[in-house]
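**User:**
Everyone, produce one record:

**Assistant:**
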Amino acid sequence: MLGWSSPATVGSASAQETAQQRAVASLRQVLALRQQQEHQSLTTLAVLRGRPPQKRRCARCRSSSMKAPAVESGLPTDLR
């Protein structure tokens, strides 16, 4: 034998390597989900700011530059 503990371990991954591969795969899935959520949030933010989602430039946006819309008093039935 060439220093291996058993022939069964030759060419196979250890339990730790398998666990690490599963963890990386899981993190990649989570990352993809978070990127999709970020895209959806930025698109929503662009729409709320009155800008086309295709031209969103929210990397430079600051919440201090956003203004809340004016809310007028009245009853909801006045919206017709």
User: Anything to note?
Assistant: Helices lie at 15-48.
